[in-house]
């Protein structure tokens, strides 16, 4: 081994040791994970105990028609839940691998935050009053936990490349309670009765986007002298792979909790919306830039899936495609024109452009529901309150996260991963 290579390896090793989270933080995370697992014990959690009793009772009476019908529905929803897991881990993971030297970090961060979000959501929702708690051993609760994980993955796209692994875990711990509060406020409290958002355009996508923007607000000065975010042909192809996986499974995301008689309509509407946004992205990217920008086609092509969420089970395919076209155009304009202006406004960098893919199309989806519900006050109120809660909670979380330092080498794996094998 050459002297220069030895020196480089020693420098990288020293950098990794210097940048590694303290043993105290890692042990704290381990203790927290063990505590969460213990709190799911039936002897400590009456919700889990009731779920186990109900599960065993249903299993004992499996010949009952009602029980069989429930089992069939649960099995169908289980299939969609696995599709959503594919979106969360493979889709989001590779979509965020577009940063040239940050692929290990992007995919590992995806693993970590999903591993925090799902059990934490289900634990919090297993406690509380009858209007808050959800049955723990229930496929619908699991699906809602996956929705929370999806919103979190959207959120980490804003600071992607500028946090250490332990800071992503911390961000997840701060995000889930805020997400649950907003979900309860908008969908369960009764204050916004009649709010339409079946597929989560507002509660999932817009919330995640503006929480993430809150986290990165006023961080320009912290990273102004650091390396820039770079991509290349290989990282962009991984990003496109992630985008296609998300496109493929998006109908399962929007139809996950709709009534069985509306699953087919929801799936068709979602596909039509995605077709509309994909076509609009190509057209507007070419018109605005002269050639297709990979960032546009990998991201804005998905905007139709975001925007159709609110009306996915109640509109028709033609309107769905129009919504998709509008969302694709809006998202492409966001990436090409609006993004620099937004970053100047919030004094922070949105690495993945989550405002363009999830923020603005999510708001668009929420606004389209006004034409169906006719309840402008409730629909607008739900959107505005979601944006305020998301951004304020994101700003508070960003302040807490910043207290734990910063990543030694932004947009790089070298300070946290072993790369010499």
Automatic annotation (TrEMBL):
Location(s) in or outside the cell: Membrane
Species: Peptoclostridium litorale DSM 5388
Enumerate the Gene Ontology biological process terms: ammonium homeostasis
Its main subcellular localisation, reduced to a broad class, is membrane
Q: Which residues form the Ammonium transporter AmtB-like domain?
A: 81-406
Q: What is this protein called?
A: Ammonium transporter
- Membrane topology of the entry: Multi-pass membrane protein
Sequence intervals crossing the membrane: 24-44, 81-99, 106-124, 144-161, 168-187, 199-217, 238-258, 264-285, 322-342, 354-374, 380-404
For this UniProt record, give its keywords in alphabetical order, as a comma-separated list.
Answer: Membrane, Transmembrane, Transmembrane helix
The record's Gene Ontology cellular component field reads: plasma membrane
Cross-referenced InterPro entries, in alphabetical order? Ammonium/urea_transptr, NH4_transpt_AmtB-like_dom, RhesusRHD
Q: Which Gene3D superfamilies match?
A: Ammonium transporter AmtB like domains
Q: Name one GO molecular function term.
A: ammonium channel activity
């Amino acid at each position: 081994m050459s002297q220069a290579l030895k020196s480089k390896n020693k420098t990288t090793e020293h950098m990794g040791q210097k940048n590694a989270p303290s043993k105290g933080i890692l042990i704290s995370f381990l203790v927290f994970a063990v505590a969460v697992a213990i709190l799911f014990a039936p002897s400590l959690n009456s919700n889990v105990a009731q779920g186990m009793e109900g599960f065993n009772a249903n299993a004992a009476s499996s010949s009952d028609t009602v029980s069989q019908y429930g089992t069939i529905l649960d099995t169908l929803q289980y299939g969609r839940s696995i599709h959503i897991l594919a979106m969360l881990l493979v889709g989001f993971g590779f979509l965020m691998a577009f940063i040239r030297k940050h692929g290990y970090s992007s995919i590992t961060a995806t693993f970590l935050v999903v591993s925090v979000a799902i059990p934490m959501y289900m634990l919090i929702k297993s406690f509380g009053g009858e209007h808050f708690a959800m049955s723990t051993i229930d496929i619908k609760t699991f699906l809602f936990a996956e929705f929370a994980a999806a919103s979190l993955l959207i959120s980490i796209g804003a600071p992607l490349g500028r946090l250490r692994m332990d800071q992503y875990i911390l961000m997840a711990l701060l995000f889930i309670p805020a997400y649950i509060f907003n979900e309860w406020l908008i969908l369960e409290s009764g204050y916004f009765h009649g709010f339409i958002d079946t597929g989560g355009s507002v509660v999932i996508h817009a919330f995640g986007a503006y929480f993430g923007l809150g986290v990165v607000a006023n961080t320009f000065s912290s990273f102004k002298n650091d390396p820039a975010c770079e991509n290349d042909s290989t990282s962009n192809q991984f990003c496109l792979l992630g985008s296609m996986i998300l496109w493929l499974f998006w109908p399962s995301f929007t139809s996950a909790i709709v009534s069985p008689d509306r699953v087919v309509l929801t799936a068709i509407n979602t596909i039509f919306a995605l077709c509309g946004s994909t076509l609009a992205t190509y057209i507007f990217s070419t018109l605005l830039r002269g050639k297709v920008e990979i960032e546009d086609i990998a991201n804005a092509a998905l905007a139709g899936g975001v925007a159709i969420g609110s009306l996915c089970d109640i509109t028709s395919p033609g309107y769905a495609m129009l919504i998709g076209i509008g969302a694709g155009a809006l998202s492409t304009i966001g990436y090409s024109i609006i993004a620099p202006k937004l970053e100047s406004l919030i004094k922070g960098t949105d690495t993945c452009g989550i405002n363009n893919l999830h923020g603005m199309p999510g708001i668009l989806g929420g606004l389209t529901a006004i034409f169906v519900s006719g309840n402008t006050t409730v629909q607008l109120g739900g959107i505005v309150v979601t944006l305020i809660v998301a951004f304020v909670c994101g700003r508070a979380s960003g302040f807490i996260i910043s207290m734990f330092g910063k990543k030694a080498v932004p947009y790089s794996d070298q300070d946290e991963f072993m790369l010499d094998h």
